[in-house]
Amino acid sequence: MEKIYKLETIVFYGCLIFLVILCALGFIAYPAVDDYEYALKSIEKGFWNSQVYEYLNWNGRYLATAILSFNPLTWRWYFGYHLIPLCLIIGLVLSLAYFLRSLLNGFDQYKIYKIYKISIVIIAIYLMRHFSLDQNIYWMSGSITYTLPLILELIFFALLYKNLYQEKKNYRTIAMVLLTILIIGLNETIMLAHCFLLFMTCVYFIYKDKKLPSDLIILLIISMLSSLIVVLAPGNGVRASRFERSHDVLFTLTNSITYTIIYSIKFLSPFYIALFVFFRKNIKQILQSFELGKTIKFNFWFVLLTSLGLIYVTMAPSLWGMGRRPNDRTLNMVMFLYQLVFPFLAWQIYHKFYEKFSWPRKFISTMNKKTFLYLFVVSFFFYNPFFIIQDGLTKYPRYLELMDQRFSKIFSSDKNSIVELDYLTEKEIPRTIMFKDIDEKFPKIKRYYNIPNATLVGK
To answer: CA-CA distance, 66 to 77, in Å (whole number)?
Structure first.
């Protein structure tokens, strides 16, 4: 028991250190591309006019647009930009802990501190497997649009579970209505994921109780109305017109199937499998307490359709709107949701195999925790976050020096000054920076800083 305890302790502190380093790397994140564009629109057009412009000319993401138009750059608060990664990582841990606390209510052995430990490990594993930390954590426009909804979604389903399975409270219903409106206004993918998961919850209660709780009816109506606001935005058509294969029905339907198969496997990294087996006894106990953990025929097909259907519907927006596979920041968001549902699917599949074959149980029972700890540690060095951390730490001092020089020139200049800004090479930029340099939208950046005579040199 002492050895097992030490192994779990090693995993926890390793994950905690990993998250602390990721938070620290947020202080070398600098604004890029769309960050300046949203701030500039808000400054030039005003907050409300910039919302109308985005809705008519780009997309219907009413909450994402509102937040990004009210971002730290709008107020020239540059330190606030560095705080965003820190707030998001802490937000993921706290919201997951709140979600788990609602599920584990009544489990005496799961003290609050233990739930926070579990949350830290799960979030660390999620970020270790991440396809693009630069887009979802360190770039404000991407992180607000694709990581913030995960935090809100966890809070939503925690409240929903409490109202459905514990004592119903009206304030929770009101909070869920507000969260639904906010979540759907962040991006089209989370809109479909939210509506789909809510719909499947309705299906489950119709089967189980032959009726729908009033909360689910209200939330389903609000979800549909909020989704119409997003879908009917004129800006969606304007944006889609820039992509050749947009709005191709057959392409969207068939490729969504292909990507569902691919990513239902790809999302399950060695990290996640190691965690699942590492804590298999705990997971078994938790799942057995839920009705979805029962291995009855309906539950098997329900969980299977929910898991695969979640991926299928979240592939569609990118294929439909842009005619291409979802970008990495979208995949990161879908992966997180899928990994929360997967334990139920794995439990069902395990028991289906167990009924016919004895080897799955024998195979897993022969694997000790030390084996999976080794798998966990070795896998870390083959994934992107290891190189991001190494890259960020080695380039950190020089990059800060170069950026300080650049911004000192900008802040000491006026609109009549001739400003020459050094172009940074790829070797000088840490991987936490999504875009190679500020020249991708340099005209907008010049307008933002009111330095029309600025040029990039050394490119």
So the answer is: 17
Domain residue ranges in the chain: 2-382, 387-457
3-state helix, strand, coil in the chain (%, to 5): 75, 0, 20
Cβ count near 443 (within 10 Å): 10
DSSP state of 456: E
Determine contact, residues 188/58, Cβ cutoff 8 Å. no
> Residue 70 — left, alpha, or beta (φ > 0 → left; ψ -120 to 50 → alpha)?
alpha
* 104 CA to centre of own chain: 23
**Residue 199 — very low, low, confident or very high, per pLDDT cuts 50/70/90?**
very high
pLDDT band at 363 (very low <50, low <70, confident <90, very high): low
b/e per residue, 346-376, with b = 16+ CB within 10 A? Answer: bbbebeeeeeeeeeeeeeeeeeebeebbebb
Residue 46 CA to residue 52 CA, distance in Å, equals 10
Model pTM?
0.91
Q: Are 11 and 278 in contact (CB under 8 A)?
A: yes
* Mean per-residue pLDDT, 292-318: 89
Quick: pLDDT tens for 236-267: 888 877 777 777 888 888 989 999 999 998 88
